[in-house]
Design goal:
The complex is a heterodimer of chains A (280) and B (297).
Chain A: E1 2-13, E2 21-32, E3 36-40, H1 47-54, E4 62-67, E5 70-71, H2 79-85, E6 86-89, H3 102-112, H4 117-131, H5 147-159, E7 165-169, H6 177-194, E8 197-201, H7 205-211, E9 214-219, E10 222-227, H8 229-234, H9 236-241, H10 248-258, H11 269-279
Parallel strand pairs in A: 3-8, 3-9, 6-7, 7-8
Antiparallel strand pairs in A: 1-2, 1-4, 4-5, 9-10
Chain B: E1 5-16, E2 25-36, E3 40-45, H1 51-58, E4 66-71, E5 74-75, H2 83-90, E6 93-96, H3 109-120, H4 124-137, H5 153-166, E7 171-175, H6 183-200, E8 203-207, H7 211-214, E9 219-224, E10 227-232, H8 234-238, H9 241-246, H10 253-263, H11 275-288
Parallel strand pairs in B: 3-8, 3-9, 6-7, 7-8
Antiparallel strand pairs in B: 1-2, 1-4, 4-5, 9-10
Helix pairs in contact in B: 3-4, 3-5, 4-5, 5-6
The chains are: A alpha/beta (280), B alpha/beta (297).
Chain lengths: 280, 297
């Protein structure tokens, strides 16, 4: 089932002015429920516009946005519901922390949803655990945390709202490799245990290969490809032609196949080791 | 001190002072680093390991609390150093930061590139030439009269680099300058950095979280907890994945693959970073064991 469906979407910035920019061109897209979907594309390909359309920050110039079975612009006054259903974590969300303590910051969203105290506190603790925040930091000021911990606190704030779709723009940018694994691994755990749908926007092909169930590739305001990671990374030359990349391990596998060692579609190191071990 | 080195840091320590809620942080604890002129050094380390503090000390945005810093052989720390010495040394070392949008100041690309030179009081004819040369070096000549805000991230970063080149810096420190870029932007910036180092002899210090980028360097320094955990050539450093993993870092995917195969008993080296060569090494090792029926064609 599709949690998000876009039908015939066009989006034009500054319509009718000399600065008119056609950011999305006849986009039809469906995002499966209960999966992690990766959204990749060069800078300026329309990814951020797409994300902002899904939770109703932007209204399409034409076309329909169906979120959880509802056309979000059927009743414009209820657009706020779309924003609770689709939680967006912007790039560098740590700049949006504001409360006195980490706990209050994470609780802000659930409070605004009008939940009871007990439910709020349960959600805050669960969200903090998924984001990998140590319980000892909950009563500290978010501004005293390290960069990596701030990022986690900001993620927890959106997770605590338990949106049907969680959309994250470069959630691991600027984190060290260990931090990337913790944040992305935490999101995967959250998705598995809650069954939520997640959309991750990223430039890291390796992270996409390791964590996504499906990948959408955008270029120039259009959907260029959709598929499971093995289908996407099999189109090696097309991706490079679009200014994107494939995981380095996929390049190794392609070269091995030219040398007579065919492993099939490989996009994670673990899988490559496993396949090669079978040959030994 | 030895003039073959662009920068020498001897046993440098630095502490960020605490306040009522936070204890002081010992960001650097006795770091010694030598950066030869014309070399390419990569600094790796987890968030909070002290790598950015080290970079700020190397380009004299911070003064070490303990230890000595030499730029081009001249001592920059202690009582005897004069304001003029520091100004001279600052003209040797430049820095490019992470976010391109925070470093662009003008509304036209070529004016942005000229900004630093104007502040240095370079004569205007000379500025013209330096700006043209710098834009040429980073491959942005055709955008000289464009507005920077319409450029891609990689292009903006190259404009920022051109501004530093125009100031004729001998040494440029890149503090995670590719972190926010898409794959194409990263390639553009990394190729520009390679060119500056190989063709123009600029000393490069690259701070990064991407292990693949570090394999381009001559020398890799791994920071952890305010100290140097390991240093050496990329081969030396990445041949020891356990140490890197213990420091919340990673190794290039080629090394991770070779390490996995080695553990399964295949006789392969770990320090092959190029995907083609990595595949050749694996295919060779497998066929010499007679493992694959159809062999190495």
């Amino acid at each position: 089932m599709a949690i998000v469906e876009l039908r015939g979407i066009n989006f034009i910035y500054n319509k009718g002015t000399p600065y008119e920019t056609h950011a999305l061109k006849n986009v039809d897209l469906s995002v499966n429920e209960g999966q992690i979907t990766g959204l990749i594309g060069p800078t300026g390909s329309g990814k951020s516009t797409l994300v902002q359309l899904i939770n109703g920050i932007l209204k399409p110039t034409d076309g329909e946005v169906i979120l959880d079975g509802v056309n979000i612009w059927d009743q414009p006054k209820k657009i706020r519901e779309a924003r609770f259903k689709a939680g967006v974590v912007m790039q560098y969300p740590e700049y949006q922390l504001f409360a006195d303590t980490v706990r209050d910051d994470i609780a802000f969203g659930p409070k605004n949803m009008g939940l009871g105290e007990d439910e709020i506190s349960e959600r805050v603790n669960k969200a903090a655990a998924f984001a990998g925040l140590d319980p000892s930091v909950m009563s500290r000021s978010p501004f005293d945390l390290s960069g990596g911990q701030k990022r986690r606190a900001a993620l927890a704030g959106v997770i605590a709202m338990e949106p049907k779709v969680l959309i994250l723009d470069e959630p691991a940018a600027g984190l060290d490799p260990g931090g990337r694994k913790e944040v992305l691994g935490g999101l995967k755990k959250y998705q598995r245990s809650v069954g939520s749908s997640i959309i991750i926007v990223s430039h890291s092909m390796e992270d996409m290969a390791n964590y996504c169930d499906r990948i959408i590739v955008m270029t120039d305001g259009k959907i260029a490809m959709t598929g499971v990671p093995s289908e996407i990374f099999a189109r090696y030359n097309d991706l490079i032609g679009l200014g994107l990349d494939v995981p380095r391990i996929t390049r190794v596998a392609a070269s091995l196949s030219r040398r007579g060692v065919d492993l099939g579609e490989v996009y994670t190191v673990g899988y490559a080791v496993e396949k090669l071990s079978e040959l030994l | 001190m030895d003039e073959r080195y662009e920068i020498i840091a001897e046993d440098v320590s630095f502490t960020y002072p605490g306040d009522e809620t936070n204890p002081p942080v010992n960001a650097l604890r006795g770091v010694t680093l030598r950066v030869p002129k014309g070399s390419y050094t990569a600094i790796l380390g987890r968030n909070g390991s002290g790598k950015s503090t080290l970079a700020r000390i190397l380009c004299m945005l911070e003064t070490p609390e303990k230890g000595e810093l030499y730029i081009d052989g001249k001592l920059m720390t202690g009582d005897k150093v004069t304001e003029a010495d520091i100004l001279d040394a600052r003209k040797r070392v430049g820095m490019v930061f992470q976010n391109p949008d925070n470093q662009i100041v003008a509304t036209i690309v070529e004016e942005d590139v000229a900004f630093g030179c104007e502040n240095l009081g370079v004569p205007s004819g000379e500025i013209r030439k330096r700006v043209d040369d710098a834009l040429e070096t980073v491959g942005m000549t055709k955008y000289a009269r464009h507005s920077p805000h319409k450029l891609s991230g990689g292009q903006k970063q190259r404009v920022a680099i051109a501004g530093v080149i125009a100031m004729k810096r001998e040494c440029i420190i890149f503090d995670e300058s590719t972190a926010m870029l898409d794959p194409m932007g990263r390639r553009e910036v990394l190729d520009t950095i390679d060119k500056l180092n190989k063709e123009d002899g600029v000393t490069v210090i690259l701070i990064t979280h991407y292990m693949d980028e570090a394999t381009r360097a001559d020398h890799v320094v791994v920071m952890n907890d305010g100290q140097i955990l390991k240093e050496g050539t990329p081969s030396e450093v990445f041949s020891d994945p356990e140490t890197l993993w213990s420091a919340s870092l990673d190794v290039p995917q080629t090394t991770e693959l070779l390490y996995g195969l080695k553990k399964k008993g295949l006789d392969v080296p770990l320090d092959v970073f190029d995907p083609e060569r990595c595949a050749a090494v694996i295919a060779g090792a497998i066929s010499s064991r007679g493992g694959v029926k159809n062999g190495d064609r």
